[in-house]
Design goal:
By secondary structure, the chain is α+β, with helices and mostly antiparallel strands. Helices cover about 50% and strands about 10% of the residues. α8 packs across α10. Bound molecules: protoporphyrin IX containing FE.
Length: about 450
């Protein structure tokens, strides 16, 4: 393993790094990765490692997973929503493996094809709604992220829970999640102090309660209908989980299953709408329309959407929705000849940094889907938008189906896509990486002869 030296900034430099991480985490994580070595921040009595080398990151997540825990402070915060769910649960007494084994089959084969039908149906409805509202004029959307978020929430709720979420529920879930995520971001930036007093913050308590109420409604409806054959039925079945775990997994899948996909899709569209991406837009349109002149895409078509898929993969490289992973070392971890991470250390895997670094990628900051033409690139060491090792994203097959299918439907329907100020939209680093401003978009109609 190519162990580079470990940089140990002075206490003063460490304070500078923390100040920068607080002010602009996106840029600071990228700059740290450009140093090409691990960074051991100087915190009294604690190890704090930022891992920038992809080989070491993979080695930690794949070979040393059992020496790591997700019990970091920032992850403990997330446990207000879904403490016993798959994302945050620890591997104590085999609890995590039991849940993982239970849900893993629901993201493959026939299940995925079934979800694809839901993705295309809901996307079609969204496009028809836009067309209805635009009364024959070109379509103007003044909050693309909001529209895509509503779509992905509808998809996840129907696909995994067979629950048709209403407009009012979408509104409530969204505004409650915004409030909770905003509070977490504020807490992380202020060393976790606001979070310690969260029970006194009524807007936080009410928001958590509203999201939990939604999960309760989903469970009550399911008890009435008794439907079988989906993720919720598996969670509630005889081989399934206890009441607390069921509820926490509804919250986990609701959140993990729509937040990341939303931001990934929005950033793909932002990149594709730029002037210099005109050729890429043309290639996607050509690809989609040659395969689907007059019908809706299916799961089977995905294999043929090669360039569309690469565009989505490339957006996940430049704008990874989960920009860092955090872990704590349960024991001393020897990761190289001269590099041991001491027990109790806090570890940050710098995904955004390594995926955007010239150390791993040629012309790293340029959006270029063609770099994924070589099959090896998607499994490259320095590409891990879905994480790595046993805790790799269980929903990644769904995300890699949903993202390209939605893109295909948009590019099949519209002649062009123009996003206002696409060059100056920045990242708001929170639970994922949302755009820092409203994304305003104009979709033009297809030219008549196409
Ligand atoms: C582009 C979309 C997505 C991205 C970038 C993404 C990213 C990730 C990453 C990086 C992890 C690992 C976290 C860690 O190691 O700490 C993860 C875990 C997870 N993701 Fe995703 N995800 C996406 C979509 C989805 C979808 C669609 C679902 C469900 C329908 C989902 C459900 C989960 C769950 C339950 C876990 C925890 C898995 C475990 O610990 O066993 N994700 N995701």
């Amino acid at each position: 393993m190519p162990i580079q030296e470990v940089i140990r900034p002075s206490m003063r430099q460490t304070l500078g790094i923390f100040a920068q991480l607080r002010a602009d985490p996106w840029q600071e994580f990228k700059q740290l990765a450009d140093r090409g070595a691990e960074v051991d921040l100087q915190i009294p009595r604690k190890g704090f490692y930022i891992i920038n080398d992809a080989g070491i990151a993979r080695n930690l997540l794949e070979a040393h997973d059992s020496s790591l825990t997700k019990g970091t402070k920032d992850q403990r915060m997330l446990r207000d929503l879904g403490a016993h769910g798959l994302f945050t649960i620890a591997e104590t007494d085999g609890e995590w493996s039991r849940q993982r084994d239970l849900v893993e089959p629901l993201f493959h084969g026939a299940m995925l094809a079934q979800y694809a039908g839901i993705v295309t149906e809901k996307t079609r409805n969204m496009i028809l709604r836009w067309e209805g509202l635009s009364e024959g004029k070109p379509i103007h959307i003044d909050n693309l992220e909001g529209q895509i978020r509503n779509l992905t929430l509808r998809i996840i709720s129907t696909a995994l829970f067979d629950y048709e979420i209403s407009d009012q529920e979408i509104e409530e879930v969204n505004s409650s999640l915004n409030s909770v995520f905003g509070f977490y971001t504020d807490s992380v930036r202020n060393f976790g102090i606001p979070w310690l007093f969260r029970q006194f913050k009524s807007s936080f308590v009410e928001s958590v309660a509203k999201i939990e109420d939604f999960a309760d409604t989903v469970i009550t409806r399911r008890k009435e209908s008794g439907k079988t054959g989906d993720l919720l039925a598996t969670l509630m079945g005889t081989e399934g989980l206890n009441d607390e775990e069921i509820k926490d997994n509804i919250l986990t899948f609701l959140i993990a299953g729509h937040e990341t996909t939303t931001t990934a899709l929005v950033w793909t569209l932002i990149e594709l709408s730029k002037a210099e991406a005109a050729e890429y837009r043309g290639r996607i349109q050509e690809e989609i329309r040659s395969i689907l002149p007059d019908r809706t895409p299916t799961m089977k078509d995905l294999r043929s959407f090669k360039f569309t898929r690469r565009a989505f993969q490339e957006a996940l490289r430049l704008h990874p929705p989960v920009s860092i992973l955090t872990r704590k070392a349960r024991e001393d971890i020897k990761v190289g000849e001269n590099f041991t991470i001491p027990k109790g250390s806090y570890i940050v895997i710098n995904i955004v940094g390594m995926q955007g670094s010239e150390n791993s990628w040629h012309d790293a900051q340029t959006f270029n889907p063609d770099r994924f033409r070589e099959e090896g690139h998607a499994s490259s060491l320095a590409y891990m938008p879905f994480g790595a090792g046993p805790r790799i994203c269980v929903g990644s097959p769904m995300a890699m189906m949903e993202g390209p299918l939605i893109l295909a439907m948009l590019f099949k329907e519209f002649g062009d896509v123009k996003i206002k100020d696409s060059d100056i939209i920045n990242h708001d680093v929170s639970a994922s990486i949302r755009p820092d401003q409203k994304v305003v978009v104009d979709f033009s109609a297809l030219p008549a002869k196409l």
